[in-house]
TrEMBL record:
It is found in: Endoplasmic reticulum membrane. It catalyses: N(4)-(alpha-D-Glc-(1->2)-alpha-D-Glc-(1->3)-alpha-D-Glc-(1->3)-alpha-D-Man-(1->2)-alpha-D-Man-(1->2)-alpha-D-Man-(1->3)-[alpha-D-Man-(1->2)-alpha-D-Man-(1->3)-[alpha-D-Man-(1->2)-alpha-D-Man-(1->6)]-alpha-D-Man-(1->6)]-beta-D-Man-(1->4)-beta-D-GlcNAc-(1->4)-beta-D-GlcNAc)-L-asparaginyl-[protein] + H2O = N(4)-(alpha-D-Glc-(1->3)-alpha-D-Glc-(1->3)-alpha-D-Man-(1->2)-alpha-D-Man-(1->2)-alpha-D-Man-(1->3)-[alpha-D-Man-(1->2)-alpha-D-Man-(1->3)-[alpha-D-Man-(1->2)-alpha-D-Man-(1->6)]-alpha-D-Man-(1->6)]-beta-D-Man-(1->4)-beta-D-GlcNAc-(1->4)-beta-D-GlcNAc)-L-asparaginyl-[protein] + beta-D-glucose. Pathway: Glycan metabolism; N-glycan degradation. Its EC number is 3.2.1.106. Residues 260-742 form the Glycosyl hydrolase family 63 C-terminal domain. The lineage of its organism: Eukaryota, Metazoa, Chordata, Craniata, Vertebrata. This is Mannosyl-oligosaccharide glucosidase. The chain crosses the membrane at residues 39-65.
Length: 744
């Protein structure tokens, strides 16, 4: 803007020649310091030039400052959840849980300052002979008095104590992210396990550290308080119980005894029996004739997803949207305000944090099991809205979460969107008509509307009612096809040369879905003004004529992206640089992008087409063609006929969404086929048949891989069905349960 102002205002006027001559002659040293030119007239002209420039720069700076502030300011709409919704007073049954999903069994409270990290509270251990920890007593403001007791280990099913070797280690706490490395650095092999009458065995143990009475002034250590480990070494098999007793729980139930031993076993068996009964009542797999093995898979899928729900609290890093796209000016990220998040995670071992577009799929399953959990999760996600209506696609909250994330993924960019999948469970709420769901949606509506409005406006494309993902990778020489991480489909092929001319089909379909759901919600809630605004937008986005004009590629016979593209790109070795992208002929030009795959199916996947649409048949044909998307294990993410199929994106970046079978999109496809298979139209029978066959392929393969490996996987090979990517991946792969139940 400043350069433009200078060009417009710098043309010669009265005295212009004098100013020009002064510039050629060059100022003296004193004049350089003063910032003026020779001559009264020339100086006046320069003053006129510089003053608007300064005003323009000041205005730009103020605008940038304002946008930066909004990026890290919470939205002003009333919260979707009451402020104390996570407290033990409001939700006592959810206050404790396995809310540290990245560890094997990480219990935590839904509190910004849980016992785990609260170094300001009291914690005192009682250690007996030979390093055996008797108990740890303590006090916190939320829990009152409490006690941890490590019971004597036994053989399974026995009550006789079993011999164990004990090590107690404590020190000042260096912070949760550093604990593992600190413990590993202290292990040594000096110790021997000597059961009576048996030969000794060496084991890695922790040496004792500070005596408790030497732990520091006022009972406090350095940093974040004290850290204590009780190590127990035994010969297998064995059983160990750690009992937590809370004074606040005892106060509410004087008859409550210590939950351990046979009492704990009986309680667990009672819960397991109740779970199985509730599972069948909810999903009716046995009633529908599914095998015991399939029922076990479904129970494992649900249990793994629920067990991965975590509670996080902290501040994320945000890069404000203050510069034009493509600008090279550096802007420092800023801290978002401290916020809580109650969410499921894609993978406890590999992705133990909140992902926006994953969570909508997670909640489709959680919602069937416990609608209250879904309302709670959606309310927390909507609590992350900034002043503009943006939600970051990855939520890295707290030191523990931050320690597990590569630095390049810590910062979330306030210009980048993510598929609005939270609207999928919202749509299900609307269909169900549960009064509790509708009451929640009434509170959440202002935030849902703000979120959708931000998406609709910030990701607008070059043509009316077109949309473009912001945040594609630049066209680096090492990348076969610049990735589009905000889309969720990462390396799915887009236009070979990123530009502002692109029109992204999947994004337009997500916005169309959002407009439809928000318009229906506004009408059901009686929000007349909002309904009057959203209804015409939903109608325009749902008009197939406009969709055809923007995205139907007659030469390809499918829906497609549009942009500056050529298929003549490949990676070739160029020592010493490794693989480098080479662009051949024909050169890139504005055209539809030939990349048949998941993106091509989005008008079908999100059920945007009329059952009599002339486009429905061609989509069903390419979907069912084994030369393209159909495989014995599910739908491929990219057609086997595509030149990008199975191709790595760089020397160090193997294919991700370039052929592998993903459960979330296959679930959407099953839902769409089921939908069109139950509506009158020329393609009803074909859709119903494809639904039955695809369901058998997907469920059958996930079951076989689960039986062979014990895991649900991130993705599956379209060639042999084997699980690929990270595992366990009990996020959206758990949707296999809803596929078995035919619940879409």
């Amino acid at each position: 803007m400043a350069r433009g102002e200078r060009r417009r205002r710098g043309a010669p006027t009265n005295g212009g020649r004098t100013a020009e001559g002064a510039a050629r002659g060059g100022p003296t040293r004193r004049e350089r310091r003063a910032g003026v030119a020779r001559g009264t007239v020339g100086g006046a002209v320069l003053a006129i030039v510089v003053l608007p420039l300064a005003l323009t720069l000041s205005g730009s700076w103020l605008l940038a400052w304002h946008r930066a502030r909004r990026a890290v300011t919470l939205h002003s709409a009333p919260p979707a959840l009451p402020p104390d919704s996570s407290s033990p007073a409001v939700a006592p049954d959810l206050f404790w849980g396995t809310y540290r999903p990245h560890v094997y069994f990480g219990m935590k409270t839904r509190s910004p300052r849980p016992l785990l990290t609260d170094g300001k509270e009291v914690l005192v251990p009682e250690v007996g002979a030979k390093g055996q920890l008797k108990f740890i007593s303590g006090h916190s403001s939320e829990l009152g008095d409490f006690r941890f007791t490590l019971l004597a280990p036994t053989s399974p099913g026995d009550t006789t104590p079993k011999y164990g070797s004990y090590n107690v280690f404590w020190s000042s706490n260096p912070g949760l992210p550093l604990l593992t490395e600190m413990v590993k650095s202290r292990l040594n092999s000096w110790f021997q396990h000597r059961p009576p009458g048996a030969s000794p065995d060496r084991y890695l143990g922790l040496p004792g550290s500070l005596k408790w009475e030497d732990r520091g002034p006022s009972g406090q250590g350095q940093g974040q308080g004290q850290f204590l480990i009780q190590q127990v070494t035994l010969r297998v098999p064995f059983s160990v119980e750690l009992v937590f007793e809370s004074g606040s729980a005892q106060a509410g139930n004087q008859a409550l005894g210590q939950l351990s031993g046979s009492q704990l076993t009986q309680a667990l068996e009672t819960h397991a029996k109740a779970f199985r009964a509730r599972f069948e009542k909810t999903f009716r797999l046995q009633e529908k004739g599914l095998s015991p093995e399939e029922q076990s898979l479904g129970q494992a899928a649900l249990s793994g997803l629920l067990g991965g729900i975590g509670y996080f609290y902290g501040q994320g890093l945000v890069l404000p949207d203050i510069m034009d796209e493509g600008s090279e000016q550096k802007v420092a990220p800023a801290l978002f305000p401290p916020v809580p998040l109650f969410t499921a995670v894609p993978s406890r071992s590999f992705f133990p944090r909140g992902f926006l577009w994953d969570e909508g799929f997670h909640q489709l399953l959680v919602q069937r099991w416990d609608p209250r959990l879904t309302r709670d999760a959606l309310g927390h996600w909507l609590g992350l809205l900034n002043a503009d209506g943006w939600i970051g696609r990855e939520q890295v909250l707290g030191d523990e979460a931050r320690a597990r994330v590569p630095p390049e993924f810590l910062v979330q960019r306030a210009a980048h969107a993510n598929p609005p999948t939270l609207l999928l469970p919202v749509a299900h709420m609307l269909e169900g008509g549960d009064p509790a769901d509708l009451a929640f949606l009434r509170r959440a509506f202002p935030r849902l509307r703000a979120w959708f409005s931000w998406l609709h406006e910030s990701q607008a494309g070059p043509e009316p009612l077109s949309y473009r993902w912001r945040g594609r990778d630049p066209a680096l020489p090492t990348l076969l096809n610049p990735k589009t991480l905000p889309s969720g489909l990462d390396d799915y092929p887009r236009a070979s040369h990123p530009s502002a001319t692109e029109r992204h089909l999947d994004l337009r379909c997500w916005v169309a879905l959002g407009a439809r759901v928000l318009a229906q919600l506004a009408e059901q809630l009686g929000e007349a003004e909002a309904a009057a605004e959203l209804r015409p937008l939903a109608a325009s986005l749902g008009a197939e004529k406009i969709l055809d004009e923007l995205h139907w590629a007659p030469e390809l016979g499918i829906f497609a992206d549009f942009g500056n593209h050529t298929k003549a790109v490949q990676l070739k070795p160029q020592p010493p640089h490794g693989l480098v992208r080479v662009v051949g002929r024909p050169p890139p030009q504005l055209q539809y992008v030939d990349a048949l795959g998941y993106v091509s199916l989005f008008p079908l996947l999100l059920r945007l087409l009329d059952p009599h649409s002339s486009r429905l048949g061609p989509l069903l044909d390419v979907l069912s063609d084994s030369r393209h998307l159909w495989s014995p294990f599910g739908l491929r993410s990219l057609a086997a006929s595509s030149p990008f199929y199975g191709q790595r994106n760089s020397e160090h970046d193997p294919p991700y969404w370039r052929g592998a079978v993903w459960l979330n999109v296959n679930y959407l496809a099953l839902g769409a086929l089921h939908h069109y298979g139950h509506l009158e139209g020329p393609h009803q029978a074909q859709a119903a048949k494809l639904h039955s066959e695809l369901r058998a392929n997907v469920v059958g393969n996930v079951l076989r891989q689960f039986q062979a490996t014990g895991f649900l996987w991130e993705q599956y090979s379209d060639r042999d069905g084997r699980g690929m990517g990270c595992r366990p991946f009990q996020g959206w792969t758990s949707l296999v349960l809803l596929a078995m139940a035919e619940d879409y």
